Each structure stands twice: as C-alpha cells, then as structure tokens.
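In the laboratory, one determines a bound structure by crystallizing the protein with its ligand and collecting diffraction data. In a computational setting the workflow is compressed into a single prediction: the sequence and the ligand go in, and a structural description comes out. We illustrate the idea with 15,16-dihydrobiliverdin.
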Amino acid sequence: MTSSALPQPCSLDPVSLAGWRWAPFLDHAVAALQPFEPVAYPIEAQFLRREGVAGSKAQPVAVSTATWGCSTEKLRQVRAACVQAGPSASVLNFVANPSSRFDLPFFGADLVTLPAGHLIALDLQPALKADQRHTTPVWERLLPIWEQWQTLLPSGGPIPAEAEPYFSPGFLWTRLPLGNDGDALIENAVFPAFVAYLDLYLQLVAEAQPVSDERRLELLAGQRNYVAYRAEKDPARGMLGRFHGKEWTEAYIHGVLFDL
Ligand code: DBV
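The predicted complex, in structure-token form:
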C-alpha cells in the first residue's frame, strides 16, 4: 500500500493528550465555535503533533505538544497550543486572531501548570489600545465580568511594563497553588471565567460588521504589532526549546502560533 491510504492529520482533529488538565477548556471552546462554521487552518503535520523527552537522563519525562486550529468568516486564525509533560508541565495557550475586516480584539488565554503552581492569564486583548472606537465597546462589557471573577482569585502580581500596551483593563491574571485549593479555584472560578470571556468574545464576533478599507489597514497594523510582540516575547520559548529543539520551536512560534 502507498502512504496515501493513511488518514491525513488535520488541524480540526480532536486533541488527545493523556493526563492533560486543560482538556475541558479546549473542548468547551471547540464546541462554542461550531455555530461559526470553523474550517481547518493549514498547519503542517510536524506542528500538529510533536513528541519529545524532558527531565533528566535518570528520570526522563515524555513530552507531547499538539495544535488545534481553525478559521471562520470573521476569525483569521484560532489556534490552541497544548503541551503535556507529565508533572513538569501542562499548558493550554489559546488565541483567536480576528480578521482585520472586523473591529475586534484578540481572545487570549494562557493556562499554565508547572511544578511551582498554576499561572492563568485571560483577556480580550486590544489591537489598538489607544483607540476608543476599538476599546470602549469591548471594555464596557468585559469589566463587569473581570470584576466578578478576579475578585475570587489572587492577583498574579506585576507584569512587565512593556506588555502593558497589549492588555485590556479586564486582564484576568492569577497564580494558584497546586493541589486541592488550586483545583477548586480552577473549577469554580477559572473555568467559568474562561466560559464568560469566550462567550462575550463570540457575541462580539457575531455582532461585528465589516469596516472600511482605511480602518482595516489601521487594525491590521495594530494586529501586526501585537503578533510580533507575542512572537518575540513568547514566555514558552525556553520550555518548548528544551522539549522539542530550537529549530522546531522557532518555526512553530513564527510559522504557526504568531503567523500574521
Ligand atoms: N505562553 C504563550 C504560548 C505558550 C505559553 C504560546 C505554548 O504565549 C506558555 C505555550 N506562559 C507559558 C509558559 C509560561 C508562561 C508565562 C510555559 C511560564 C514561563 C516560565 O515560567 O518559564 C501571559 N504567560 C506567562 C507570563 C505571562 C503570560 C505574563 C509570565 C511571564 C514571566 O513570568 O516572565 N501569555 C501571556 C499573555 C497572554 C498569553 C499576556 C495573553 C493572554 O497568552
């Protein structure tokens, strides 16, 4: 038989990673996107699934990174980077990149479990933070949701000043301990916050109307800035480099995760 008989992997295939703690989040997001008629986003097989080894020679840990992705009429690219490395790391980084033909923010979620604890970042991030036409209609609706959930969660502490232009005032940001207390907060606050942020985002997407060509170019410039910043400062670069090698990691960051 030739290899053409093998099923071709596709960005819409369900992500299946043994022991991955963020599966309910991705499952929810994929289900919530269905009314928008997602189509596959072109992603090479080597980035859809990659195995590696971490840990020490004496205690190696199997590592898997998987990618889910789609596009819709109004979302240029929605993608999930999913990492599972036994007790060393469990990560879901989920970003929705809108088409520049619509005046929409990004949806960004960074859900990270490391041996030192969980780190949770959730936001509807602006492409043009200084532009009130872009921000006010989003922030009015986001702030009550932020307030409701951030109140239940400890602050994650300071973030770099250079990151400030890329976050909204509704940036939900927390660090949680491993164990029962952290698990309870993930179930009772982080998950419902993720659902509420995504629900608002998808309402904004449903409502969005096409913009003028002039506006499209402004939005595109802001989006390019944001994506370039995220690629340059990706906090996962070190981890992914250790797990899968530098060359693969750079190609993944620039060619898949932040590809505008
Ligand atoms: N972060 C990514 C991608 C990841 C990823 C693509 C594929 O953008 C994971 C995986 N984030 C990841 C990891 C860490 C962080 C940290 C593994 C821990 C790094 C480490 O401790 O070694 C939000 N993520 C962080 C930090 C911030 C964010 C502020 C702390 C950085 C630090 O301590 O220096 N990521 C950042 C952000 C968004 C986001 C603002 C938007 C919602 O997705």
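Residues 81, 83, 91, 93, 108-110, 112, 119, 121, 123, 159, 163, 234-236, 238-239, 257 surround 15,16-dihydrobiliverdin (CB under 6 Å). Keep in mind that any predicted model is a hypothesis to be tested, not a measurement.
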